[in-house]
Design goal:
The complex is a heterodimer of chains A (373) and B (267). Chain A is an all-alpha fold and 373 residues long. Helices cover 59% and strands 0% of the residues of chain A. Helices cover 7% and strands 54% of the residues of chain B. Chain B is built from one helix and 15 strands, in the order αβββββββββββββββ. Chain B has a twelve-stranded antiparallel barrel. By secondary structure, chain B is mostly beta strands. Classes of the chains: A mainly alpha (373), B mainly beta (267).
């Protein structure tokens, strides 16, 4: 009887919170998960191109663990990130998970700090995945595929709480705030890895658009993935020197689907902004969540801090051009651009295809018979 | 006739999986009630998602009775942070008198999740169930239950506390998953993110009706993301008190999440 009374009391309290919206929980952040756009094109990317699709699962881990370590390991972030970098590049990327990583498991503290940011990233990553699924579905004619991608973008934008704006945001948000660039300057190697992720995430659209047959698309995807692997040789010299932007890395995709390309650039910009917020000593620990919220507001606002589509398309040139962003994602690349980062010594550049293939890596070097674009 | 109805339902369920009309969610961490342990997590089905469950359960009771059951379930995320659903339990009961087949009630439920987990608060949800006496094994009365659910995580570990209070007719209860007078369960799960596996352990106590003995059972189970569209779960249960609860119970099930384009924005 006593137990039943306790159960009834708990239920009554919970019910009160529901009915009066007065409880602490009711004032908390809601989970707000939403299902993805249905269709039998879903999961085609994973089924046909697992060597690329599964890498993206490992990328999700990389993003998640970065934020968790930056937020929770203030005294030893450098050591922790070195350890995670080794784990990622020698283990998880080599044998990536079959399915999406439950990011809450990897970043429990960060998820509680910035649930909205986590949801916005998840929502945009879902769009990424579904557009790859559309490209991977051989049953779709190009017109049907492009129509589907626009519909997927509409669906993405219909979730206004968690969609980035499809208007290009000014680079000043990423580069010119008082905390900007803190992460990339403090942890250039890990930052380079993140930018290499972003290079592949947008660049991989190109071989799908170039390839006319499944075989051509398959070999093109493998070549682009191989180029990603070559970026990991001799870090950080081969990593992108600037955040890869869609018009530079994925020009065909950006021309065909500018809204989605803009969304991905805004997403990647927000990735960097959050890394900077979590790294910067100039933002007190207790204000980091609030600052992330403010920046999310900016990245969702279509009316301020924006540039025109023409400016967006030309922006890569102002930022060092395609070579600074990791180079093209298709065509022959005998050598991935090698950059000298301040304070680091690097050997002379070598042809990308002269480096020994690492055990366990699934890809060969880029196809040397492909043509240059 | 009942056997035919049961067979038709099973065939229909099988067909649902075979036609695979739409893709599903990566949801091996979405802990549903009785899949495979009694406890569920505090999170609902995603907005616009349907989740279809097709389980099988075998129980060997202390008095020698054997129970075979399947409880097909469909849930729908009809609003943000809320879902509704129905269950249609079917059972076969073997005892000294022979074997009875039949429908074991019709159950409707709704769940609302107040919050995602924060630094200080667990995720909290409230669930309401109604069970109607439809079918030969459904008992004699209508019953209702309210359940409070809390989920708290520590990295790869999560705990789930479920507290439920039932009311309504105390006449003969359904043979399958009756809405107990009260129940309480505490579950602990661990995520293995590389293999997409969730392992769960649980202790649950319940009193089916006023005057009944309190059962205390321990369960172990797992959920595995089999394909992008299917989750396979399995579990075992054993009573911890003599004479009350199953000597042994085993369950296995499949869950499949999907959406219907016509019900979504931006069609």
């Amino acid at each position: 009887m006593l137990f039943r009374t306790i159960v009834a009391a708990v239920l009554a309290v919970t019910g009160l919170m529901a009915s009066q919206d007065l409880g602490t929980a009711a004032a908390q952040t809601q989970r707000d998960e939403q299902f993805y756009y249905p269709g039998d094109f879903n999961w085609k990317f994973l089924a046909i191109y697992p060597e690329a699709a599964q890498l993206f699962n490992a990328f999700d881990y990389g993003h998640a663990v970065l934020y968790e370590r930056l937020y929770t390991k203030r005294g030893s972030v450098g050591r922790e990130l070195e350890k995670e970098y080794r784990y990622l590049t020698t283990d998880l990327l080599v044998r990536p998970p079959r399915f999406a990583v439950a990011e809450e498991v990897i970043m429990p503290a960060y998820s509680k700090l910035a649930w909205r940011a986590k949801m916005m990233f998840d929502w945009a990553h879902l769009l990424h995945r579904q557009i790859y699924d559309a490209y991977a579905d051989d049953r779709l004619a190009p017109v049907q595929r492009d129509t589907l991608i626009e519909r997927l973008t509409d669906y993405y934008l219909s979730n206004r709480r968690y969609a980035f704006t499809d208007k290009p945001k000014t680079m000043a948000l990423m580069d010119e705030q008082y905390f900007s660039q803190a992460f990339r300057k403090t942890y250039p190697t890990f930052n380079g890895l993140i930018w290499a992720y972003h290079w592949l995430q947008v660049g991989l659209y190109e071989p799908f658009i170039e390839g006319q047959t499944r075989a051509e698309r398959k070999s093109g995807v493998q070549a682009t993935v191989a180029r990603f692997w070559s970026m990991l040789e001799d870090p950080p010299s081969r990593f992108p020197r600037y955040m890869p932007m869609a018009p530079a890395i994925a020009p065909r995709f950006s021309a065909a689907h500018p809204r989605a390309a803009v969304i991905f650039d805004n997403l990647h910009m927000m990735h960097d902004i959050i890394s900077d917020i979590l790294t910067a000593d100039t933002i007190p620990y207790h204000r980091k969540g609030q600052m992330i919220e403010q920046q999310l507001d900016k990245l969702q606002d279509p009316s301020r801090d924006v540039m025109s589509l023409d400016e967006w398309r030309r922006m890569a040139d102002h930022m060092g051009g395609l070579p600074a962003m990791g180079g093209p994602a298709t065509g022959l690349l005998r050598e991935v651009p090698r950059h000298h980062h301040p304070g680091m010594q690097h050997p002379e550049a070598e042809p990308a295809d002269s480096a020994p293939a690492r055990k366990g890596r699934p890809q060969e070097r880029a196809d040397t018979t492909a043509h240059q674009h | 006739m009942q056997v035919l109805r049961t067979a038709a339902t099973a065939a229909g369920l099988s067909l649902c999986f075979l036609i695979d009309p739409l893709a599903a969610q990566i949801d091996y961490r979405n802990l549903d009630d009785d899949r495979p342990v009694l406890s569920e997590d505090a999170y609902p089905v995603e907005r616009y998602a349907f989740e279809l469950l097709a389980p099988y359960r075998f129980e060997a009771e202390a008095d020698g009775t054997e129970l075979h059951s399947t409880v097909p379930e469909l849930a729908y995320g009809f609003a943000r942070n809320a879902h509704i659903g129905l269950k249609l339990p079917l059972a076969a009961v073997n005892d000294d008198a022979g074997t009875d087949w039949g429908l074991a009630g019709l159950r409707l439920f709704a769940l609302y999740n107040f919050n995602t987990e924060s630094r200080w608060l667990p995720a909290l949800s409230l669930r309401a169930d109604a069970s109607f006496a439809v079918g030969s094994l459904a008992g004699d009365g209508t019953r209702f239950a309210l359940k409070a659910i809390a989920t708290r995580s520590w990295g790869r570990l999560r705990t789930h506390l479920n507290l439920s209070s039932g009311f309504g007719s105390d006449d003969a209860l359904s043979s399958v998953e009756p809405l107990s007078r009260w129940s309480a369960s505490l579950a602990l799960d661990r995520t293995f993110f590389r293999s997409s596996v969730l392992l769960i352990g649980e202790v649950a106590a319940s009193q089916a009706a006023g005057g009944d003995a309190t059962s205390v059972n321990a369960s172990l189970g797992g959920r595995w993301q089999w394909t992008p569209t299917l989750v396979l779960d399995a579990g075992i249960t054993r009573r911890l008190r003599s004479g009350v609860g199953p000597d042994f119970a085993f369950t296995i099930g499949l869950s499949h999440a999907f959406a219907i384009r016509a019900l979504m924005p931006a069609q």
